[in-house]
Amino acid sequence: GESVGLHLPTLSVQEGDNSIINCAYSNSASDYFIWYKQESGKGPQFIIDIRSNMDKRQGQRVTVLLNKTVKHLSLQIAATQPGDSAVYFCAETGNYGQNFVFGPGTRLSVLP
Amino acid sequence: NAGVTQTPKFRVLKTGQSMTLLCAQDMNHEYMYWYRQDPGMGLRLIHYSVGEGTTAKGEVPDGYNVSRLKKQNFLLGLESAAPSQTSVYFCASSYVTGDTEAFFGQGTRLTVV
Q: Is B84 helix (H, G, I), strand (E, B) or coil?
């Protein structure tokens, strides 16, 4: 079936550097693409979303880019901090938000 | 405001036993979901509900049943637990149709031996 996946399972960055987490998706019909953060022992937490008719959306220290031509989604975290260490999931959903399809996740480790 | 609360947090079952996982949300959300999370496989949708009294199957519904008798509660049942159901289970809720922000509970770690 359709799925959302990730290029890299792990990513290590130095504190203060920028992080880029990538995601490939296959369902061209998805209306929204979402990033979630999951800290150890906790449930996923919403970070930011982007609608399929947009290319870029910015939040606080995060930017999501959507390239529909190559079906690629990325999450950029500026000035990565130790508190950013977590597993990041991309997800996609249709307009009715009834079924979020999650990718396998990327573990981000922030090095001191 | 507690958000989404799951009970219990941990449980060990013997093969063939049954149990019910409880999810409660206090945000008046219409949509509720049950996911399972296995290593390297992300979250997979088991069942979901779009309102009180309604339920629907997700990606991996076999071996599970659900009920949504009250808007704030969503129950996940395992009638005859199997080792393949060893996983971390997450409940989530969202407000309305098209809402991309789902709120997750802390998870229930279930081991079936």
A: helix
